[in-house]
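Appendix B: complex inputs.
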Amino acid sequence: MKRSYHVVAIPIRIVLNSFGDHNPNGMMYVLKENEQKVKEMVKKNPFSPVDLVQPLAIRANEGDTIEILFENKLPFNTGIHFQEAEYDVCQSDGANVGLNKDSTVAPFKTILYRLHVVKEGNYFFSDLGNPSSGENGSNSNGLIGALCVENRFSWWTDPETGKVLNSGQYADIHHPILPSFREYVWMFHDEMEVDDLTGNRPINHFSNQEEESFHGANYRYEPENRRQQLISEGVVCPNCQGEEVHHDSWVFGDPSTPILRGYLGDPAKIRVFHGGVKETHVFHYHVHQWFSDPNDLASEIFDAQAISPQSHYTIQPLYGLGSLHGSFGDAVIHCHLYPHFVAGMWGMNRVFNTLQDGTQCYPNGVPIKALLPLPDREPPPKPTKLKPGFPNFIPGKVGLKAPRPPLGIIGGRGLTELERNAAIENPRPGAVFTDPCPEDAPVKEFNVSLIELPLTYNKEGWHDPTGRMFVLDEDIEDICSGKKDPEPLVIHASAHTCFHINFTNRLPHILDGDAFQLVTRTYEVGMHIHFVKFDVLVNDGANVGWNYDSSVLPGETAQYSYYADVELKAWFFHDHLFPGAHQQHGVFGSGVVHPRFSKFLDSETGKEVNKGTQITTSNPLIPDYRDFVLFAQDFTHLFDKNGKPLSPPPFPGSPDDPGLFGVNYKNEPLQFRLGKECDPAYSFSSYVNGDPVTPILKAYEGDSIRIRLLQGAQEESHSFNVHGLRWLKERGDLNSRLENQQHIGISESFTMEMHIPRSGDYLWAFETEEDLWNGLWGLIRAFDEKVPDLITLPDRPEPLKRSKPLPVCTGTKPPPAEDPTSAPIKGPIRYFDVVAFQTSIVYNSFGDHDPNAIIFALRKDMKAIKEGLKNPEPLILRGNVGETVEVTLTSLLKQELFPFQDGIYPYPIVKEQAFYPPSLRISLHPQLIDYDVKTSAGETVGFNGDQTVGPGESRTYRWFVDSQVGACGLWDMADIRNHKSQGAFGAFIAEPRGTEYLNPYTLESDTTGANVILRNPLLPDTREFVLVMHDGVRLLDKNKQVIFDPVDGILLASPEVDEDLLDTYDQGSRGFNYRSERLINRYQKHPMLHDLFSSKVFGDPATPLLESYVGDPVTIRLVTPAERRRSHTFHLHGHRWRFDAKDSNSRTESFVGFNVAGATRNLELLGGAGAYNGFPGDFMYRSGNIRWDIEQGMWGIMRVLGELKEHLPPLDQ
Amino acid sequence: MSKPNESQPINDIREAAIIKHFRKNIEKRVFILTEAFPFMYIGKIVNVVEDLVEILVQTTSIPALEGKTWIVHIHSIDVFYIETGVGAKIPDLKD
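Resulting structure:
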């Protein structure tokens, strides 16, 4: 079916909340039919939000062809680029890329775009006519939107009126066969320009400094600062502090941000998009859970899910609104990154239990808009005087904090008459309006308290004097007296458990002030939980909307009740009243829901336990396993042993990335692990420095283990890597891909299940440079023989009696690792002779270069590189399944060629810079393939032998390609400060058995190189392109001046550099495969924003040109070996691939999110080059981060040729 | 059910043998794994009707489904073990 829309891009004033905060230079896409109306309404309401000012959301059905007549009324060229759709790239790309015809539109001109939408799902769209990231850029100012593609034969109506809907963020979707559902578009976006009522940047009324940047959804935000001002000015809630009532509608009325309304049990889809330009956010939705891939029942269950710029997913809450147990009330939806939450990035899902026909009011007198019941569902009962429905039975007072729930607090109140009418038959503490626990569910009781005590993070005395943590009451004395080492509280139970929690607030009323934050009255706290089922009104451990405030004052005890219905992962808990103030001090914990019938044992004594970050689990039906829990932390407020604050913010209370990092209240910074010889190559060695204080996860060779990965605090992305082990991405799905890296944001939870094939020390690490530098790493230690402090897994054979003593710290250089080549060879063998040396790399034709790069290369190529005949590319090695690969590495590093002899790089920097002299040793560590960590991990870790090589030395690693994992990163582990971001990385590609690799231009055999043809007797010839996405590069320009990217690369930059631009983890240049096509260079030559990607104007970019013919099978191998914590989205125009290449049920998308150190992905393009419709032309591949990646050169071109060209032989099919 | 003979396809023979085995073990406890939800269950064989087995399910991964009689298509079972008294005992699982 053909569907037509007339879309106009207009300038518009966007009022972001009812406090009058606004963007005077906003821009939006709007349907032509609404253009005049929205302009008039904005004119009449200059300081109030206008409903029609919202990101454009339009709809179509799977299989439709959509014609968009696009009209540009902005003063520069704009366009609409649609992700996921298929289209003629020369006509409908909404950009001016390569040799294509320009499909952006000049001011006051029009263009017709024609799109084919192949699959149901989320199609994000945005402008690429103006790719600048600054205040004048189009994306940050609102030129973004959503196309929701529904199942075939669907139609949609307005939820209030039932009329047909042409556009809008909320719709009811109907289908002749499938159930109707509520559809909500949730568009995160960030970094929008904001002025207050006076036309100035908003000021934080508490600190008198400029407010945190904009973080909102659907052109709205509701900052704590604004609401708190009403308290401080005495308008509302005189005794409140601020954060604890930030989401309280009793105090402030409803927020301006989205409220997704529905009735109990309604099926729903939340179309979540990230239309922002910079940050990775975490979408969290209280009470509800969903499949990570709605069409794949074997996919992971989430209730918090990260999202990086220009990516998206659909959330289909399991069991509909209110979840399995039918919990009505307000479920807050928010970005879990606290500075963003505090800045206003939240809204809620309001689940009514009575019919709303427009005649009812909220307690503050605001009318409740009508909401039609879904036509195929029983309408809810009409409200009556005795049963008025949510929220009108709650005995709150407008202008004051929400009331405490009935029954919940020991010594608290009972139910009012209206509450009794609304309650279930037998209300009990923690389950008043719905009871999540089935009658026969076994009850497990935990007495939990929140306490304050100093926490020491490492042997150097770095400490948090106001640490705060959850503890079991029976452990308080032992922890406070120092008998037990503090660790985050982890409680354990089996599925089908009804939890009874007695939660006591033992915190002081006041969180003290220091260099990091101002004195804050954190006088009430709650225990908010994820994943488990609970009554949201009384049990949320939070204070949201028109719900109760389910927290307690100091000395009080709340009784909560939850139910774990099935085996869940580690469920996260934390305080929801003052998390912005104190979660980074340690206020987080977890419960692990194990398979039913499990027993939990102390791993040292074998006695039954109910808590611990490291336990042993025994189960009668499945293999027994070790269970380990790791929490990543950032914004950790640490002082050194002399009381000096470490990495304090610019002023107390600033959200500008204060503090350092931790894992389970510990860290092991590398600056203290140089040893006597001052060689970074042995930083991870326990021979030189002893074991780290961070968790050492203990097991025996052959054990099954589960690592529960969580992030407890507070704002940033982290990249968890395990070296030498791997797990199924979707734990319950044998068709899932193998991984050994996981991106994580706060509140996310992942379970990695694996077994340990051999003894040895395996490194786990949060592996971006700054995390690792500041100590986020530890070991998995697999013993070969019995040790006294670790029981055997009950279903595993007893390990052999110890025949040799365990190794100990000697303080000296570790012994060399054994030679792996003496063991028998499995399968055919492939040899590589690799050298590591220093050279210069030219990153683009404008002369940007790295004169001090370190690269890996085949020895045969070294001469040409050194003589400047060959510009280096990252080393790409290949091998086939079933083959043994031997790589001999030789170090040719020279001391004098390191630019900073003390290892302190003036730019880019890391937090807590310190002396770390360059190592002349180097190593080569591979991901995902199989090897013995004691000989071939390419690193010197724990009590494993030395696997690095010094100048002139060689060492051979032996790897076995046991699985067709495709892309694997390769990198140096000898010196993470002086080698990796300088280029010491590459990739290994594990190909199908029997594959040959051909140079695509000469058709000669070629095992290395980023661009090859794969020829396999059983598979079609396939073009393979390896893209190595990397950042944190120190480049010099043609005048040998340091390039201070990202700042130096900003187009239309404002003269004053914002301090926020200088976050350590944004620093440095970036690109693909040692190349970067920085737009600023092009702009200086030809200052037309919409032409910056044009090869007609500038020639092709320096980044790899991926050439193919229409219909050629294409696989892109994407690896991100280095280096910074900012996560990048990858997007290829006009093409899609299965999210999980191994899983035929996987959703198909055109982006890959979360590209941070260690990320890998194999993208098999559906329909081959040019996609199913076979369109030739130039398709851009690029980062999805407008700020600060595309400008800084993270883009390139995939050229799909429609006609035979002499230089590129066709595939032999 | 006809006796196996040489002209019968091997799958028919196998299926008939499985049905026979279930019928022989009515009243015994059985442990079953299936590819489909709910993947694992333990119960008592109550009856066998054609190629359907009636099982009183004592334990499965979803507690709400326990204590009920299920009619299961025998050939949708991927793995099973019947407690005949000869091999290991199927554990009695309690929360």
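Residues 10-82 of chain B form a domain with the SH3 type barrels. fold (CATH 2.30.30.100).
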